[in-house]
Write a structure and sequence with these properties.
This protein is mostly helical and 73 residues long. 25% of the residues are buried. The mean pLDDT is 95.
Amino acid sequence: TEEPDNAVVLLKAARTYAALGQKEQVMPLLQRAVDKNPNYVTPYIDLAALKAGEDAVNLLLEANAINPFVPDI
């Protein structure tokens, strides 16, 4: 692909894999979206939903710092 780190594409791919039950594909894609696009909030929220405890809280805190107006946070 011409934009392998496009956050929107990575997020949609992760959600597609999740819908297909291929959970092992989801987390790496979301992590890549977060790593390569640190100002895009949505992958943080989706990744936090898959994590537990402090990892999830830290992702949500980062997302809130980026955009405190997202109601899903």
